[in-house]
């Protein structure tokens, strides 16, 4: 049985007097019964009025008729050190006597709460829940559960601090203490109320681990400037950030409130907080689904097709890429498409057709659909393969996020086999290149190549050429087959990249060398699993 006791009477009457809503009063009385917060607003107000009307000498406890675990109580501790009777200029404002029940009755009408700014009032009603539900249903997402998130105006933290200081001072007169951490958080109380209603409307359970998120963003323009005084008191808490429209973020405000002294706070902000004229507004109701990952292998059959869009100084150099060609076909009603693979920007690289192909993974961001049958995946694979003779895809399948991690681990551990057509400026004979076949486990120091320096950090990477096998063609050309550690820059190993890769084919042959063609013959990683045709 959840209840308010006589020790709660001062806070209940005090907060009612100052314009606080019933649910916020329960929060400041440290009531943790979720069922109580879900009761109709008018019933809660009526119960609180009855509680105040009861004769303290005859009734020590007033019970709400709701079965729930015992609530968290105000702790019997010595009053914390700090200002007792500070108002706007350092002392608390005079409030109607806690014994003046008529005042409490008059001021307890349904007005905008001076603490939650209406979050626990209007926005807990069925009409708003239906509005959220309609927004979700109209977005046409596929989901089996949901997680609900809410973004609150940062000034609510300031108002809550003022109300807490007021309550702490009042019950301090009784030798009690109200710990800030014992107050039920506004977000927590709001979710207690919303979850069962929204779950009923959507027909699926609320689940904190769900990948489908329903979020509501609240704002209260009328009180936007209330936390600005904190920037003067704690300037180091408010630093501009490129991705933030305002320095007054919720976390920055909370950090400043932890630093500011109580007497300084009360000099700048009214206690109790004033009653607003307007409710909060729900400025955004959004949905977002967790990413879906599609994996497979692909082969590229054109040397004029870069792995990714090749755009320099805003100008497209080649017409398309596997990423764009895949994006055109993998349209599963999602917001964005990201190809996850160790892509190279060399357009002349050919992935030979007799190979199982290069592993890749596609991340579908915020997809509307999340479930696909094996037949649907086969159909998508066929659609991609029929769209072009420049790329072919196989083993297309859904994978988990953790499986993507295994792909990336494989990229570090795997080996690759290449075939390179090499040109030299000076004439060569077969015996000039024969020694390359005897070199095993050749260690390279590769400084980040100039061609990728704009997107990769400058570093010297140690890579290994496991084996090489040469094939003489003519005085200026030979083919070299290499088995290398993953991450080796083959082009730079051939020409040296102005001395940034040491040793290199040019230095080994003591002449200028360059690469004309590069074919990838195999990637030694067993991922993703091969599928039966």
UniProtKB/TrEMBL annotation:
Q: Which GO terms describe its cellular component?
A: mitochondrion; nucleus
Query: Which keywords belong to this entry?
Result: Coiled coil, Cytoplasm, Isomerase, Metal-binding, Mitochondrion, Nucleus, tRNA processing, Zinc
Q: What's a GO biological-process term for it?
A: tRNA pseudouridine synthesis
Q: What's its top-level EC category?
A: isomerase
Enzyme Commission identifier(s): 5.4.99.25
Which ranges carry the Pus10 N-terminal eukaryotes domain?
A: 113-287
InterPro entries from the UniProt entry: PsdUridine_synth_cat_dom_sf, Pus10-like, Pus10-like_C, Pus10_N_euk
Subcellular location(s) per record: Cytoplasm; Mitochondrion; Nucleus
Q: Name one GO molecular function term.
A: RNA binding
What is the protein's major site of localization? Answer: cytoplasm
Q: Which reaction does it catalyse?
A: uridine(55) in tRNA = pseudouridine(55) in tRNA; uridine(54) in tRNA = pseudouridine(54) in tRNA
User: Residue limits of the Pus10-like C-terminal domain?
Assistant: 293-524
| Protein family membership | Belongs to the pseudouridine synthase Pus10 family.
From the Swiss-Prot or TrEMBL record, give the protein name.
tRNA pseudouridine synthase Pus10
What is the species of this protein?
Answer: Corythaeola cristata (Great blue turaco)
Taxonomy of origin reads: Eukaryota, Metazoa, Chordata, Craniata, Vertebrata
Q: Which gene encodes it?
A: Pus10
């Amino acid at each position: 049985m959840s209840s308010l006791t006589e020790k709660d009477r001062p806070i209940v009457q005090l907060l009612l007097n100052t314009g606080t809503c019933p649910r916020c009063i329960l929060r400041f009385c440290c009531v943790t019964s979720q069922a109580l917060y879900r009761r109709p607003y008018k019933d809660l107000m009526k119960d609180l009025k009855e509680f105040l009307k009861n004769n303290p000498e005859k009734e020590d406890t007033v019970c709400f008729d709701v079965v729930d675990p015992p609530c968290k109580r105000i702790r019997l501790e010595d009053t914390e050190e700090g200002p007792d009777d500070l108002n706007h200029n350092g002392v608390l404002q005079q409030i109607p006597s806690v014994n003046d029940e008529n005042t409490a009755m008059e001021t307890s009408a349904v007005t905008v709460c001076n603490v939650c700014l209406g979050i626990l009032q209007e926005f807990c009603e069925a009409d708003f829940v239906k509005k959220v539900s309609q927004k979700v249903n109209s977005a046409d997402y596929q989901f089996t559960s949901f997680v609900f998130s809410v973004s609150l105006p940062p000034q609510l933290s300031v108002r809550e601090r003022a109300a807490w200081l007021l309550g702490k001072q009042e019950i301090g007169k009784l030798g009690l203490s109200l710990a800030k951490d014992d107050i039920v958080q506004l977000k927590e109380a709001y979710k207690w109320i919303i979850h069962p209603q929204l779950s009923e409307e959507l027909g699926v359970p609320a689940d904190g681990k769900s990948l489908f998120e329903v979020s509501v963003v609240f704002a209260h323009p009328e009180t936007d400037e209330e936390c600005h005084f904190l920037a003067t008191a704690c300037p180091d808490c408010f630093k501009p950030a490129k991705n933030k429209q305002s320095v007054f973020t919720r976390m920055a405000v909370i950090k400043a409130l932890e630093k500011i002294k109580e007497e300084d706070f009360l000099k700048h902000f009214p206690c109790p907080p004033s009653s607003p004229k307007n409710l909060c507004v729900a400025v955004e109701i959004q949905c977002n689904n967790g990413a879906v990952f599609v994996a497979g292998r692909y082969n590229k059959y054109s040397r004029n097709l870069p792995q990714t869009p090749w755009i320099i100084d805003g100008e497209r150099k080649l017409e398309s890429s596997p990423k764009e060609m895949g994006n055109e076909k993998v349209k599963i009603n999602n917001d964005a498409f990201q190809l996850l693979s160790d892509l190279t920007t060399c357009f002349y690289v050919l992935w030979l057709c007799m190979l199982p192909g290069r592993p890749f993974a596609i991340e579908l961001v915020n997809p509307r659909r999340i479930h696909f049958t094996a037949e649907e995946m086969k159909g998508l694979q066929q659609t991609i393969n029929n769209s072009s003779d420049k790329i072919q895809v196989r083993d297309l399948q859904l994978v988990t996020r953790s499986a993507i991690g295994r792909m990336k681990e494989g990229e570090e551990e795997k080996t690759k086999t290449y075939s390179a057509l090499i040109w030299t400026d000076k004439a060569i004979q077969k015996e000039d290149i024969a020694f390359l076949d005897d070199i095993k486990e050749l260690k390279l120091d590769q400084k980040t190549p100039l061609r990728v320096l704009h997107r990769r950090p400058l570093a010297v990477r140690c890579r290994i050429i496991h084996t090489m096998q040469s094939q003489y063609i003519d005085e200026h050309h030979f083919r070299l087959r290499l088995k290398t550690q993953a991450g080796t820059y083959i082009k730079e190993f051939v020409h040296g990249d102005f001395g940034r890769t040491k040793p290199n084919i040019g230095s080994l042959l003591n002449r200028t060398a360059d690469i004309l063609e590069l074919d990838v013959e195999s990637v030694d990683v067993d991922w993703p699993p091969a599928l039966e045709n």
